[in-house]
Amino acid sequence: MTDLPRGPSSILVDVELPDPEPLSPTLIDVLSPLRVVLLGWFAVPEQTSPAQARDQFGAETQATLDAVARRFEDAGAEVTTRLVFTGDKFDTISRVSVEDTCDAVLIPGAMAELRRVLVPLRGLENASQIAPFVADLCRETTATVTLLHVVGEEETETASREDVLRPAADRMRDHGLDTGLLELDTIASEDPAGTIVDRAGAYDLVVLGETEPSVREILFGTVPERVVQTADVPVIIVRHQDQSVDAAEQVL
Amino acid sequence: MNTSAPADASAPETDQNELERTLGLLPALAIGTGTMVGAGIFVFPGLAAGKAGPAAMFSFAIGAVIALLVALPTSELATAMPESGGGYFFVSRALGPLLGTMVGLGQWLGLVFASAFYLMGFGHYLSDLFRELGVDLPLSVMGLALGMAILLTGVSITGTENTGDLQNWIVGVLLALLGGFLGHGGLDVLGVFGASQVPEAFFPYGTMPVFTTAALVFTSYLGFVQIATVAGEIKAPSRNLPRAMIGSVILVGTLYVLTIFIGTSLLGSESLAEMGETAVVNVGRSIAGTFGAAALLGGGLLATLSSANASILSASRSIYALSRDGLVPNQVEQINRRYRTPHVALLLAGGPIVGLILFGRVEVLAEVASLLHLFMYGLICVALLVLRHAPPEGYAPTFRCPGHPVVPILGALASFGLVAFMNPLSIGIGAGILLATAGWYLVYARSVTIPEISS
């Protein structure tokens, strides 16, 4: 990770084509300080060659994607679009997130207003990946950002505060986030995933660090999916920065 | 954290409408193996043993050698042009649109014949199943095959669930099943379990039937080229295409030879022949009793069905490649908006299959399917010779066919030569079809020009 100065963090937003799920205007505003990689994907079943689908739907889907891109541009975001015809959207999202060095990937959900952001942390290393992204995302807003550390029985609340939460808060401040908006919270629980899912309902957005070395597993795996399904809160997954394209592509 | 992404620099160029490669090595192997294994193991052993005796294993070995002689050149061409279309694509680019049209339409119809043949095999297994269960069925083998043909076509048009994973599982289960039986049967034959072999002459009908049988059973080696047909969807094509094509030929070839060896050793070729299409069920019975029979009966149902299904899908892909180049009307590639499937192309595969099942002669169906593919195989070898002789701009294969030019020359001679051993009716039908495809080109597509090879 390099020092400041740098461009804005980037986020991958995937758009299902030809008929996209509607994105809430508030969410688009919230993402506007970021560089947005807008990935339109058109899924084909195995009976159909992706090239065949492109021949027929290429122009139409490009126009739809461009219309979505304009909404982000009008909100002030720097937008790149990619349009992919694919037999496997997970493969596509995973590959593009690595190729375009996206810092994070969005799983959309409903958002009326951005007042409270939940940022669960697993440890300091994890926090240092998330900090610059959260700072870029929330710097211009008045939303409160709750840093949540779920500890097991053997860890004390003091250690959690001193070793994880405070240093994480410092990093966010270094990246320009107003510390007055930060809340630090430690919870003891043997089920961190369940705790996060339970809490998520009280927030407008959840920002999580990636756990596995693959976007595919975390993206559509456990915690984020449960958050989106039970609370219908949008989730942003901040990626590890050390993935190679090969690892993401799963050549076998 | 670095926001000056490398992809940004080339954004306007590469951002437009990409195609995802989604098939890894194992799914590619499953396409090849899944298309082939249904015939060689589950339909042909009885028929082949009846014609050539225990020497039928040589017939399968000859087929494997020819397939390998073609798989090597095909691998080079596929890594040079990893685009969907396969044999048609190579031949049309190297030898022009007339031969390209004949190969492309020939592959479509060859797969239609093959699929009808697999479905007849499926009908035999299903009717065997009902017989074993003691159910008296009002439907004949042909009726069962016909019902399944209509069902499969319907499902392929309306089915939006991906069955790719299912196909991989089916192939995996079949291979495990066969590995178990062949391993056990092999030990049986070697006398480990004390079973007695059936002694008989190795060439009971002489050597000529070995070659005519090789021509008949070559339908068991049509699958590897279907991997090249979906080359545009295969990940890391320069690595995975040669491995999948060559690997699937070696894998199924070994299984076929072992199946015949063990089957004829345990039961004798005459009794194998009497059991016809489903002889392998009795091989299973002699190795593991009722369980063995049931397992191979189930295996036969799955294998013939998966081969038929894979053939329908490949047939639809092969006409798509032609329509892209304008050699057939472009309505053919129309995709149904609701199901996102190429319903016209799939109907053009499923419809003729129904007709061919009514024709119903299993051996002729198999031979015509083989003939139409052998025509393509021979021309693929010729295409390699032409492209190596005068490589066009942008011809940069990552896999080089070993033993050039001997391998492609032998591959072409063997492919065309094997046709001579087929029965006259099959040769007549096959030749008629090829003439008709040439006629189609002359009438419909003579003005079409084929784009140059580009990389």
Question: Your description of this structure?
Answer:
The complex is a heterodimer of chains A (252) and B (455). A 9-stranded mixed beta sheet of chain A has the order 3-2-1-4-9-8-5-6-7, sandwiched between helices. Chain A has 252 residues and is of the alpha/beta class. The model of chain A is unreliable at 244-252 (pLDDT under 50). Chain A has 2 domains: 10-102, Rossmann fold; 116-241, HUPs (Rossmann fold, 3-Layer(aba) Sandwich). Chain A has helices spanning 25-31, 50-74, 89-99, 124-138, 157-174, 192-200, 215-219, 223-231, 245-249; strands at residues 10-17, 35-43, 78-86, 104-107, 116-121, 144-151, 182-188, 205-209, 235-238. In chain A, 41% of the residues lie in helices and 24% in strands. Chain B is mainly alpha-helical. Chain B has a single domain, classed as Amino acid/polyamine transporter I. Chain B has helices at 6-9, 11-14, 25-42, 44-52, 56-80, 87-95, 97-132, 141-158, 164-189, 208-217, 224-229, 237-267, 269-275, 279-324, 343-359, 362-389, 406-419, 424-444, and one strand at residues 18-19. The two termini of chain B are 34 Å apart. The interface between A and B is large, with 47 and 49 residues. Strand 3 (78-86) of chain A pairs parallel with strand 1 (18-19) of chain B, so a sheet runs across the interface.
Which terms summarize this structure?
heterodimer; A: 252 residues; alpha/beta; Rossmann fold; 2 domains; nine-stranded mixed β-sheet; 9 strands; disordered C terminus; B: 455 residues; mainly alpha; Amino acid/polyamine transporter I; 72% helix; disordered N terminus
